[in-house]
Amino acid sequence: MTYCRLFQKVLHDDLVSYLYDANLAGANHRVSTLKSGFRMEISGYSEKLPFLLDAVTSRIFSLLQELKEGKPSLAGSFDKAWQNLLRQTRNSKLGSPHEVNLYNSRMLMEENAWYLDDYLAELDGELTMEECGQVIQDSLFGPVRIESLCIGNVDKAWALNVTDVIKSKFTQNSRPLGDNAIPKFKSFRLPTKSEAAAIFGSEVLNMSIPLVVQDVVVSESEDNNAIQVLLQTGSSIELGYEGVALFLLLSTMAHNSAFNQLRTKEQLGYLVRANIRKTSGGGWFFAVTVQSGVMDPAGLQDRVEAWLTSFREEMVTMSDERLASEASALVSQFSEKPKKLSEEIATTWAEIAVTLPFISADRNPEFDRMEKLTKYMELKDNDDADNTNEYAKTVSELRQALLDFFDEYLAVDSPTRRAVAVRCYGQKWKHLFEEKKGETGILSNYSEALHLKQFLSTLPISSYTW
After folding, report:
1. 103, 133, 267, 347: which could join 67 in a potential S-S bond, CB 3.0 to 4.6 Å?
2. Which residue positions in the chain have pLDDT lower than 50?
3. What's the pLDDT score for residue 231?
4. Are the CB atoms for 242 and 234 separated by under 8 Å?
């Protein structure tokens, strides 16, 4: 991965000058690094794009050869990319408290996640142009699988022309990547309180959240603390269309409620969020984030838990009119068509990207996913016998479905709740971090997180239906 990121930076600088005239003419390109390979985007006037694609891929191959040969004229560009990536990676440690929490939670919840210190160890080691060129060549010309999307003012013949360019450049001298070799990135299933007790001991049964990850912000001038409470709701296939639709509606309502209570009324801090968070492999979480300089992370966690209890009461007492309005607004959002080509491309490619880890037989993007979700949010009257949507609900049925969802996944006293509290302490609160070190259920470094991950199972990566 380190060599892939270095190559992407060297290539970017090279193509800026190599394709300068094409960029002035409105033909754009972008090559980016993914966890499982590279992504190339070409856009502009359709009649010129096949030529631009050919030029970009040709330059990739010639640049690879120059790197393998250790061409002196590339030494400056390679060293610049190396130092830039090293500085960028080191600066990642200087994030704000809530950014540190995002990173630490990902290290715990994702199966294949590189630790920042591992990246730095690679970058501080001996890296060479020759090895970089060889690694990238092996990646591009070893077993590969290519997914492409042609969209816009194009026809079938144009798309086939682009496909021919791709085949001539990448697949003639390589082998197809088999289903068994497809990179798969999964998320772990967090433990319930009873499962956490089996791992850590019965002491965690007295904790509202039996799993805590804590850290201290690196910046000496940062005095804010942050808490992120993550409540796992499962995977896409476990939630299904109805579960996802209910989760989206609940999170929309929760965002305004959390902001009003924790930010406006309690004035805990300027940054307050309640939203859905997704991790690799289709893991779904409800995330409540607060960054504050007036309360320590444990206190913030208590306030989040108290808000969760009050939010359930809000849903119970919410008027039928307001609940119907919230559902109708979400249906309108689901039904809204893309206004720009870029939005259509992003939406379409997102559905394709979800299927990339699947075996060939299951690689069927659900381009009608939003329409299917809409069916579960449609409302009907109690006496509406003519409604042909079998998934439509009355307001009372929708309210009960939301409460059932909340009670299973989010309620403080739910025996099936899977939660983790991720805390980050500002420098002036560092003594509290030290006091909590070594306590049962509290992870204070990456080694402790790795130890816990040995006990956890992973979520299925399949999409909404089997």
Report:
1. 133
2. 466
3. 97
4. no
Q: What element of type H or E holds 69? A: none
Q: Which pairing describes strands 37-43 and 225-235: parallel, antiparallel, or unpaired?
A: unpaired
The pair of three-digit structure tokens given for residue 209, joined into one six-digit string: 């959240």
Please return the burial class of 285, using the count of CB atoms within 10 Å of its CB with bins 0-12, 13-18 and 19+.
buried
242 C-beta neighbours (distance < 10 Å), count: 18
Q: Give the pLDDT confidence score for residue 384 in this predicted structure.
A: 67
Both tokens of 31, joined, read 């090559």
Contact 185, 357 (CB under 8 A): yes
End-to-end Cα spacing for the chain: 32
- Residue 185: per-residue pLDDT: 87
Label the pairing between strands 28-34 and 37-43. Answer: antiparallel
Residues 200-215: tens digit of each pLDDT: 999 999 999 999 999 9
pTM for this model (two decimals):
0.90
DSSP classification of residue 44: S
Per-residue pLDDT at 34: 85
Rounded Cα distance, 175 and 75, in Å: 32
Q: What is the pLDDT of residue 465?
A: 55
Q: What is the pLDDT of residue 466?
A: 45
Report the amino acid identity of residue 198.
A
Tokens 């509606």 correspond to what residue?
249
Task: Single out the residue of 349, 368, 332, 327 nearest to residue 465, CA to CA.
Answer: 368
What does residue 382 show for φ and ψ, rounded to 5 degrees? Answer: -60, -30
Rounded Cα gap, residues 210 and 232, in angstroms? 13
